[in-house]
Amino acid sequence: MLQQLPSLIPAMNKAKEIYFPTEEIAIDPDGNLRSPLELREGMTYTVISQVPYRNRQQLQQTSTDYPPAIKKYYLQVPDQIQEQVRKKTEEILASVHQVAQNKKPLDSNYEKVLYLAQYLKQNPNYKLQQEPPFLRKHEDLVEAFLFGYQDSPPGKKITGGYPDHFSTVLTMMLRSIGIPARLVAGFNPGEFNPFTGLYVVKNTDALAMTEVYFPKYGWFAFNPIPGMDLIPPSVEENQTFSALKAFWDWVAGWLPSPVANGLQLILGTLILWLFQVIRWFFSLFTQGWLGIFSGLIITTIMGFFGWLSWDIWRGWRYRRWLAKLPPEESLYQQLLQVLAGIGYPKSPTQTPLEYASWLHQYHPISECEVIDEISQAYMGWRYGGKPVNLKQMRQLLINLKSSRWKRLKRQKRL
User: Fold this and answer.
1) Which of 53, 65, 343, 389 would suit a FRET pair with 84, their CA atoms being 20 to 30 Å apart?
2) What would you measure as the largest C-alpha separation in the chain, in angstroms?
3) Predicted local confidence at residue 182, as pLDDT
């Protein structure tokens, strides 16, 4: 891209500050930053952008009163596929009651986008293809992805495509039902280098995602590519103490100033005391062998109780998460946990049936039959709305756990 547009300064949207080796830069009509110099290899610059917060509750309540410029450019769909893609999209949205057993309609654009992105990501009909058939001269990519390539082998209909095709299709599907969307290209964060403190971003980290416009809040990205996060990491996930700070600001706003100042003094004293305890602990290691021995004992005890607390908290959080899921989903997630606990985790790129088939080479036939039955029941419920005999499935899961436990005991004896 830089070879074709050497004056373009790559940066995130809504740039706030820029540190660049020129006295002036320009902003083109599309809002992009432009340099008076040609960007060359080795040039370093910094752009600080204002990143919007993704608040699901607020985005659910946004209106559909879009600015004329947004409607003009970001609702365009080729005429030859407009009606076909719109019908398919509405059909998928209507099936939410069968798939999720949910009687509540998707009445907000944000929830519709989430559902469609997740649908493309998980539906086994749309797979990542290493080499999809070539498109014919007048064949449309979106149409081929959703309904099958014209050059599919005889007797077989190939759908899906390359990773970026998923984002292209989601963009067109959203536009077809009146939701402004655009395709954006960029890079994943890459791999962190602890020796330099920098992230190494390679060409293989490049990808395309769909951005959706929400009035008053701007553009937000969604990633329908299988094996990747549905929602890209955002700034609010890195605000370590943001929730605590927001809570304190709320409490302090209701309290009289003397009370708020008193509480702030108490908290400051507690923090100072904590630093003193930490300093005393590290000073033990400078007091000879006895201090080192005492420090190691304290470290061991603290480590044990820390591990125990973490294990209890993690188990509580997992049980709480399961309780929020539909019973069918909860049952399948418990199966995945059992198999991951013995060294066979499910890859994000595997469908439930692919995962079950892969496990056949590692488990006895009796256990594979149980895994297949639970996986088939889950797939039938998830994508076909078929009822599941939960009592029978729970008993099968108990039998699988019991079988694994007995096999491990026999292996230990041997």
Assistant:
1) 65
2) 82
3) 94
How much of the chain, in percent, has pLDDT values that exceed 90? 24
Query: What span, in angstroms and rounded, lies between the C-alpha atoms of 297 and 250?
Result: 41
HEC string of the chain?
A: CCCCCCCEECCCCCEEEEECCCCCCEECCCCCEECCCCCCCCCCCEEEECCCCCCHHHHHCCCCCCCHHHHHHHCCCCHHHHHHHHHHHHHHHHCHHHHHCCCCCCCCHHHHHHHHHHHHHHCCCCCECCCCCCCCCCCCHHHHHHHCCCCCCCCCCCCCECHHHHHHHHHHHHHHCCCCEEEEEEECCCEEECCCCEEECCHHHEEEEEEEEECCCEEEEECCCCCCCCCCCCHHHHCCCHHHHHHHHHHHHHCCHHHHHHHHHHHHHHHHHHHHHHHHHHHHHHCHHHHHHHHHHHHHHHHHHHHHHHHHHHHHHHHHHHHHCCHHHHHHHHHHHHHHHCCCCCCCCCCHHHHHHHHHHCCCHHHHHHHHHHHHHHHHHHHHCCCCCHHHHHHHHHHHHHHHHHHHHHHHHC
Distance CA 321, CA 325 (A): 7
Q: How many residues belong to the chain?
A: 414
Q: How many other CB atoms sit within 10 Å of the CB of residue 109?
A: 22
Reported as a pLDDT band with limits 50, 70 and 90, residue 246 is: low
Which of 14-23, 28-37, 80-89, 243-252 shows the highest mean pLDDT?
Answer: 80-89
What would the two tokens of residue 90 be? 């509405």
User: How far is it, in rounded angstroms, from Cα 320 to Cα 314?
Assistant: 10
Token digits of residue 140: 């449309």
- Nearest residue to 141 via CA among 122, 168, 117: 168
Cβ-proximal residues to 172 (8 Å cutoff; 6+ apart), any chain: 77, 81, 85, 142
Residue with tokens 């390359």: 162
Amino acid at 151: D
Please count the other Cβ atoms lying within 10 Å of the Cβ belonging to residue 143.
20
Residue 160: other Cβ atoms inside 10 A: 22
> CA 344, CA 340: separation in Å to the nearest integer?
5
Are 169 and 120 a contacting pair, CB within 8 Å?
yes
